[in-house]
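Run log, item B.
One chain of 169 residues. Sequence copied directly from the ordering sheet:
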Amino acid sequence: MEVNPVKYSDERRKAVIAKLAPPHNRTVKEVAEEEGISAPTIYNWRKEARERGELLPGGSSGPEGWTARDKFAAVLETASMNEAERSAYCRKRGIYVEDLAAWRRACEKANDWAEERNKQLADADRQKKRRIRELERELHRKEKALAETAALLTLSKKARAIWGDDEDA
């Protein structure tokens, strides 16, 4: 028995996707229940829309619902805008100008993060190498002390064997 998938018109898809987009920012679950469409279908539509470059936050009304890709796209879209245009853009999408500025700073620091992480790893590596050298020196010192103690013990046994045991007298 074959199951025929339900076909939805492009207009219906766009209307459903619009409910996920700012300023509504509704969740997939809410829209699915309201529209009578399965949530996986809407997730697929949202994924396709994102691949086309549309900004579709994850469903919360604030900036926390936005994916990193959406935030980056918003930063790119607003890069050439003046302050008034940027404010209008943010109002339309339900975010604050401060959020957008923070996303921009994060994007600008993205490459620095890797460099900073490499410095941290190099510092940690140097500390580990220093610790290894200290432990090797300590091990070498203890091996020498152990060898000296073993030599003294051997000499004392030989001396007793040659001159006899003073403890018997």
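Observations after the first pass:
- The mean pLDDT is 83.
- The two ends are 107 Å apart (CA to CA).
Flagged for discussion on Thursday.
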